[in-house]
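Board notes (copied after class):
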Amino acid sequence: MNRIIKVLSVVLIPASLWAAQIREEALQAQVKAVAKSLRCAVCQSESVWESNAELALQMRQIILERLLRGESPDQIRAYFQGRYGDFILLKPSMGGLNLLLWVGPSVLLVVGGLLLYRTLRRWTVPSVATHPQVPLSEEDRKRVEEALKSFQG
C-alpha cells in the first residue's frame, strides 16, 4: 500500500503542477487578448498590453482579477468602456454615431466621384446637344456677312 501511494504521488504531483502551469498560461493569454483590445489612456497610441505606463500596469492587473472572478472578456471591455468611454477601445463598435465615422468617408468618396463624373461629362458633351442649332433667317445671314466683310477689309 505504501508503495502505491509513493507511485501515485510521483505521478500525480507533477501532473497537477503541469495542469496549474497550463491554466496560468491560458489565463495570461486571455489577459493579453483583452489588454490588446484596450487603448492605454496615458500613451493613447499603444494598447494596454504594449504600454509600460503605471495606469496600463494597473489595468492589466484589473483584467487579471476580473478574469479570475469569472468575468468574460466582453464584460471586462464593457467595464473599461463604462469608465473611459468608447475611446478606450482600439476598435470601436460599428453602431450609433460610430457607424457614421465608419461609413461616412466611403459615402463621401462615392458622392464626390459621381459629382466629378457628372461635371466631366458636361464638359465633354458637344455644345450642339445642349444648344440645338437654329437656321439663320436671310436677314440675319446678310448682317453676319456684312460684319465679316467689315473686319476683313
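Comment from the instructor: The chain has two domains: 1-92, 94-123. Helices lie at 2-36, 54-68, 73-84, 97-124, 127-130, 138-152.
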